[in-house]
Amino acid sequence: MRRGVAVGMGCALVLAGVAAAQARGERELTNDDLRAEMAKNSALAVYVKRNGMPDVAEAHFLADEPPWDDHEVTLYYLDAHKEVGFARAFILGSPEVHMKRYVRPLTDEQVAALASRAKARAKQAPAPGDPPASGDPAPAGAEQMAGLGPDERAERAAARAEDAAGRVEAAADSAEHAADRAEAVAARAERAFHRGVRK
Q1: CB 72 within 8 A of CB 98
Q2: Is the Cα torsion angle 33, 87, 149, 49 positive or negative in sign?
Q3: Alpha-carbon gap, residue 71 to 88, rounded angstroms
Q4: Does the pLDDT of residue 135 top 50, yes or no?
Q5: Of 15, 39, 47, 96, which has the highest C-beta tally within 10 A?
Q6: Is the pLDDT of residue 127 over 50?
Q7: Helical H runs in the chain?
Q8: What is the CA 135 to chain-centroid distance, rounded?
């Protein structure tokens, strides 16, 4: 009998939590939902491209007063104990302002509560042929980093930064070489000018 009461109470609490989330306008975003939101909000797209796909993503009701859009998108990065919110604001009737609204720390209890949802999200496969979040030729797009932890994301970001630094260094060497050639040509021209003046 006690087991039945405990199960019934557990189910009631879960249903109450779902009802409360729906009443507040909360819904969990799938990878496809998140990509759709990224297409609408450039600040969100840039953040995900730099930091990788979140462990959990949600949409929350927001538009209690202008100029905000009707919802915000919240990303949860569990290993970093971080919650980041993004929203759009309207200017002259169009949602032109895309911004990061807040960054909040997550407690260990919040991380534990989100962990099971993160496991379910990690199992979602990216849609085949999905383009990266932007046109930049990055070695690993945000979609490819969906199942990676923060250490792996940081390693990949460091590798991309090192590659970029190598390209910048090569460009600097090339510019320096071109400057040396230009200086040599200028020196020859100056010598030729002085020879012409002496004659």
Answers
A1: no
A2: positive
A3: 8
A4: no
A5: 47
A6: no
A7: 2-23, 31-40, 42-51, 108-122, 150-198
A8: 14
Tokens 């997550």 found at? 106
Residue 19 pLDDT exceeds 50? no
Phi and psi based region of residue 55 (left: phi greater than 0; alpha: psi -120 to 50; beta: remaining): alpha
Q: Do the Cβ atoms of 84 and 102 come closer than 8 Å?
A: yes
Which residue type is seen at 184? A
Query: HSE-up of 150 (CA within 13 Å, CB side)?
Result: 9
Please tell me the distance from the alpha carbon of residue 120 to that of residue 42, in angstroms, as a whole number: 26
Dig out the tokens for 146 from the structure. Answer: 């969906």
d(CA 135, CA 140): 12
Instruction: Please give the average per-residue pLDDT across 150-157, as a whole number.
Output: 73
Band of the pLDDT at 136, cuts 50, 70, 90?
very low
CB atoms within 10 A of CB 154: 14
Task: State yes or no: pLDDT of 120 exceeds 80.
Answer: no
Using the predicted structure, report yes or no on whether residue 177 has a pLDDT greater than 90: no
Check residue 168 and give left, alpha or beta (phi > 0: left; psi -120 to 50: alpha): alpha
Question: Which tokens hold the place of 80?
Answer: 């970093």
What's 55's DSSP letter? S
Whether 160 has a pLDDT exceeding 70, the answer reads yes
